[in-house]
Amino acid sequence: MTPHVTLKLRGFGDLNDASQTWLADQVQRNVRSLPPRVDLLCQGGGTGPLHVLIEGWAIRYKTLEDGRRQILSVLIPGDMFDINGHLAKSMDHSIATLTPARVALLADDFLDTARKLHPDLEKLLWCDMHVSSAIQRERSTSLGQRTARERMAHILCELFMRQRSVRLAEGGSCAFHLTQTELAEALGMTPVYVNRTLQDLRRDGLIQLEQKCLTILDLTRLEATALFDGDYLKICDADGGAGAHKENAHAF
Amino acid sequence: MTPHVTLKLRGFGDLNDASQTWLADQVQRNVRSLPPRVDLLCQGGGTGPLHVLIEGWAIRYKTLEDGRRQILSVLIPGDMFDINGHLAKSMDHSIATLTPARVALLADDFLDTARKLHPDLEKLLWCDMHVSSAIQRERSTSLGQRTARERMAHILCELFMRQRSVRLAEGGSCAFHLTQTELAEALGMTPVYVNRTLQDLRRDGLIQLEQKCLTILDLTRLEATALFDGDYLKICDADGGAGAHKENAHAF
DNA sequence: CGCTCTGTTGACATACTTCAAAATACGTGG
DNA sequence: CCACGTATTTTGAAGTATGTCAACAGAGCG
To answer: Residues in domain HTH crp-type (chains A, B) (predicted)?
Structure first.
């Protein structure tokens, strides 16, 4: 069974068989099983090696001195984190599991080896990082510009799409492991209002959400109410070839 | 005169003389002068080479279909952008000048050459990228958790600190090229409320802001009202040495 | 079967927005 | 250097999206 990381990376471009088997091997070399709701890495603490989430959900979050907490991103199987850990002297944010999870800890020389022996893989890793940044930017845009309802619709679209791209969605349904309180922390709103916003979306026949399972009843309309444009999830194009820049829209 | 990029990168770690002169040379090889308020790169359009902002201010922003605009980050002299442009097939956001600006376009093989001939420089480039991500995360945290007053205080602290670290602040003063409308777009609030928030901060004797010049009258108190912790601007430590991970705060 | 966590509801409060207009600064051409 | 048009800042009054508080109802779990 091919791991979710592979599926994810292959979404960005081709990966030859040798690279694929090497990656699959690396990813099962050193796996830790974790209970739900524990910190893997702590804001202010030391950094770690490159991690790959194999199974379960996790979050990246920041806390303010007074305890307010912002969930920066939701990590699902196939997601990598702390890719540049070796560069930082300490974490500016934390990583915690939401559910029971399995995490692969990659060897310290993983990136170096990939660079030398599997350049196609290395390229896809950078693509992944690039897309992660794009997701982060979209999140900022949500927080700054979208209304509560739009933000909610948007995060639902995003998490559905991301799961679908690693074969974790069945038809219009996928797992959904955020409590309403966690959703509130991700969307910069209050748990009570999250509840009301979800009810709005349900009443409008856009979604169904119960027992950790999200069903999208009308994707087109949900995307419309979210002002969702999924392009940011697939702006990468490792096959496009180096230097082959598209015509540049320079104003000057 | 050493360019701001060099100052910035040297903030992350040492850079030997050969790398410094090579960098300084690369950065003045192909410089474009731009008028204020023009797009350099357009959302949806093609990507470009690695850019370095030499002089003037610019912004990274995203627009929603209906015209709402979120300023994602403010670029000041020494900042680089589009570092991974070659990986993406299109831009998920735009870059525009705010003031008249000068921008260096680096050669397509800049990164490759740096990797081969100036590994110390390459490392600092990744550090820079890493810090940019941290800034982006802090921005999300602001948008999601901080009140209008806190967000305002925070962005003022950040822009002051960043300018200071490239010698662009004199005492407690620095340039400030955002209009109140732009400030509003960066902070996810309304221009009117930006105005009122600024007046609050002024009335409280925290800042002075007039004629594109910001003066911080009481940094300690401003940081306190912002819940500002400047560590995120200097989490990088290229000298720390590869593999020398600090003791890890694993919960498991 | 009782505890704790999560979801739901209602009434009320407020931080922030909206609209609209005046005052001030800013740039440009004459 | 002035005069005019445009962009920015400032002010006031009124509206609303979202937050707060508090209580209750289910669900999950040992």
So the answer is: 146-220
The nearest CA of chain A is from the CA of B58 a distance in Å of 14
Residue B128 falls inside a structural domain: no
- A198 CB less than 7 Å from any atom of strand C: yes
CA–C1' A26–C20 (A): 64
Cβ of B191 less than 7 A from strand D: yes
Asked if the structure places residue A147 within a domain, the reply is yes
Q: Are residues B115 and B3 in the same domain?
A: yes
Answer yes or no: do B73 and B5 share one domain: yes
Domain count, chain A: 1
CB contact under 8 A, B40 and A251: yes
Rounded distance in angstroms from the CA atom of residue A37 to the C1' atom of nucleotide D7: 52
* pLDDT for residue B239 is more than 80: no
Which CATH number do you get for residue B195? 1.10.10.10
- Is residue A97 a part of any domain in this protein? yes
Residue B70 resides in a domain: yes
Mean pLDDT of chain A: 93
Same domain? B103 vs B210: no
Rounded Cα distance, B164 and B147, in Å: 25
Is the model's pLDDT at A35 over the cut of 50?
yes
B159 in the same domain as B60: no
pLDDT tens digits, one per residue of A179-189: 999 999 999 99
B145 contacts A68? CB cut-off 8 A: yes
Sort out which chain A residues have CB atoms less than 8 A from B187's CB and list them: 144
Helix (H, G, I), strand (E, B) or coil at B56: coil
On whether both B95 and B154 belong to a single domain, the answer is no
Do B223 and B151 sit in the same domain of this protein? yes
Model pLDDT, residue B206: 98
Name residues 197-216 of chain B with a Cβ under 7 Å from nucleic strand C. Answer: 211
Q: Which nucleotides of C are covered by protein (CB under 7 A)?
A: 5-11, 15-20, 25-26
- Residue range(s) defining the domain that contains residue A170: 4-234
Which CATH number goes with the domain that contains A101? 2.60.120.10
Q: Testing the interface with B: which of A108, A145, A157 to mutate, by most B Cβ within 10 A?
A: A145
**Do B113 and B160 belong to one domain?**
no
Distance (Å) from CA A168 to C1' D25? 33
pLDDT at A75: 98
Q: Which nucleotides of D are covered by protein (CB under 7 A)?
A: 7-13, 17-22, 28
A175 CA to C5 C1', in Å? Answer: 20
Query: In this structure, are B64 and B101 located in the same domain?
Result: yes
